[in-house]
Recover the amino acids of this structure.
């Protein structure tokens, strides 16, 4: 039996809301659909999928942008309001050994990102790899092209806990139009939310399914 939905705080044009729940074999997606219906209001339509599988509402409800991600039993939903087709994306990854991280970076990351990754001590490589990966995925999921668009076509710089867009290629460009915010959800997870537009306040909430 589904838990009652929590009270949903007002979502202004200056906010991004991120909801965390358990994935539970897909129950998280069903819970997210219930949450999104509340955000959308009266007459909320069914969620549809774009060409590359990005979930969305049809017009005129497409001023509510949203995206979800899961890793293991953790699921995140990011929601924001903006102009029609508002783009927001989120990615979460479980921290676990990835012995092929550098190999994957050589294949799929920008050259500067890979060089910086290779220069790091072994103890720091995994966190940097996942920081870059989640930032890239969040942007490409917001854009709607997904991984098929090309991870190398969006590159970032990392300074401490800050991630900044550097160079974006194609219709996801320019990099300066995007905001990236890492989410601090515990030592066993790395996550990021991204949206096209100006700075916003990111608020994280948790609820059971």
């Amino acid at each position: 039996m589904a838990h009652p939905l929590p009270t949903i705080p007002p979502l202004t044009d200056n906010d991004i809301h991120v909801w965390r729940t358990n994935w539970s074999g897909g129950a998280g997606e069903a819970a997210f659909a219930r949450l999104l219906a509340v955000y959308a209001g009266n007459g909320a339509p069914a969620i549809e999928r774009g060409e590359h599988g990005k979930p969305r509402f049809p017009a005129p409800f497409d001023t509510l942008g949203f995206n979800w991600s899961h890793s293991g039993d953790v699921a995140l939903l990011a929601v924001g309001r903006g102009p029609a087709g508002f783009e927001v994306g989120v990615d979460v990854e479980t921290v676990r050994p990835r012995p092929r991280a550098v190999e994957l970076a050589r294949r799929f990351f920008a050259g500067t990102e890979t060089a910086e990754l290779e220069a790091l001590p072994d103890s720091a490589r995994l966190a940097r790899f996942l920081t870059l990966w989640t930032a890239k995925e969040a942007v490409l999921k917001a854009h709607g092209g997904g991984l098929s668009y090309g991870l190398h076509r969006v590159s970032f710089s990392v300074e401490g806990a800050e991630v900044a867009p550097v160079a974006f290629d194609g219709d996801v460009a320019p990099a300066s139009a995007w905001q990236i915010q890492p989410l601090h959800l515990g030592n066993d997870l790395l996550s990021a939310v991204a949206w096209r537009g100006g700075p916003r306040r990111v608020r994280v909430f948790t609820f059971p399914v």
Q: What stands out?
A: The CA atoms of residues 105 and 114 lie 6 Å apart. The first helix runs from residue 27 to 40. The radius of gyration is 17 Å.
